[in-house]
């Protein structure tokens, strides 16, 4: 699996992974805000968000129609749609793409659900490796408590109820998340996860996130040429435009 | 010797990893697949087979592409807009297939039904191969599929297919003409080129997956006769 840099893409992809309640979404949001303020071309994409596929996924989840295989395939479809229509063109155009969850989420979840690991990995083998993957690691109890405190009503698939681990959704969620964490840790070295201590205060984590990103990526190369897309004050000058096109 | 006339019982297996937790030996029914382009007479033959099999006392269940509860309507909508890229389309179809496999095909086989599939993974693989998808990737993806008891590919020259399609509806279907591939701006040309490529892909697949190629350039009755003969042998009813 090669990174986008190794594949000579002008853009770079940064992914965050972690259990629900690890605080990874907060961290990537703050990273996005910082990059935007720096005038950098940045795009954010979250797991399971393709307009096209979402209605099927939510129908499947609501009506509990999904099996481990269709759960895996429908998420792969969602990922492929975002990957081919958004991520790839943006990475070709020199964007920094931020992904809240990437293929590793599928590797961990689908395998926990009983799909063969090499089948799942084979399906996602069209996707390149992120240039930086940060894994937000908390004590299992900490992330469980964050979720269970804030959102007492657990959804069927979220709690892993389809695995029949326990008839109690809370107990099921605990066992399920524990198994996912094991899967994540097992692949951490193979995919060069940078393991972040998610028990630290938000600000301290973000400081480290920004430092890591700055070290890994020469951000000055990703600045927008003009900071704001202002409407033209004068009719565009064709001669000058042609010059700029040549320069680009 | 008498024992020679007993048809060889094919060992039931998935093409790859299969579906987790399925007991394969419980699948007592038969899975019969009819493949072929639009206009090859697929639907006509399937309707006739259903009637014949039911008259003989077999329970049948029909399945086909894009008929799942889970994604068929979304897939239809996405295709109308022609906004799917190739991997997405491929995975969308695979999801549709898996949903039917787990919710219709496997339970029906377990109950001893004859499942008649109006197209199966081979059409999906051939379509993707023509669109340049990696064969090893497809093979892994469709490792979930159950190996059918019989696959009949109704083969017809593209020139004859185009005539049949036009005489039926006076128009050619966008996807069956492979218009997304940009082979030609002329729909007639594109149809012929695309169907020729599909046929080549099927012949390639036939080497790996071993299906029966049926010459469909004959009368409907004579094709039916051949199919019945082969299926009777499969069911051990000769």
Topology:
The complex is a heterodimer of chains A (248) and B (238).
Chain A: E1 12-18, H1 24-37, E2 42-46, H2 51-62, H3 68-92, E3 96-100, H4 103-112, H5 117-123, E4 132-137, H6 140-150, H7 169-187, E5 193-197, H8 202-216, H9 238-247
Parallel strand pairs in A: 1-3, 1-4, 2-3, 4-5
Helix pairs in contact in A: 1-8, 2-3, 4-7
Chain B: E1 30-36, H1 42-55, E2 60-64, H2 72-81, H3 86-110, E3 114-118, H4 121-130, H5 135-141, E4 150-155, H6 158-169, H7 187-209, E5 212-215, H8 220-235
Parallel strand pairs in B: 1-3, 1-4, 2-3, 4-5
- What is the name of the CATH topology of chain A? Rossmann fold
| Low-confidence blocks of residues of chain A | none
CATH architect. name of chain A:
3-Layer(aba) Sandwich
Question: Which structural class matches the secondary elements of chain B?
Answer: alpha/beta
Beta-strand level of the residues of chain B, as a percent range? 5-15%
**CATH homologous superfamily annotation of chain B:** P-loop containing nucleotide triphosphate hydrolases
Helix content of chain B: 40-55%
- Major β-sheet strand ordering of chain A: 2-3-1-4-5
Summarize the biggest pleated sheet of chain A: 5 strands, parallel
Would you state the CATH class of chain B?
Answer: Alpha Beta
Assign the structural class of chain A, choosing from mainly alpha, mainly beta, alpha/beta, alpha+beta, or little secondary structure.
Answer: alpha/beta
Mean pLDDT of chain A comes to: 89
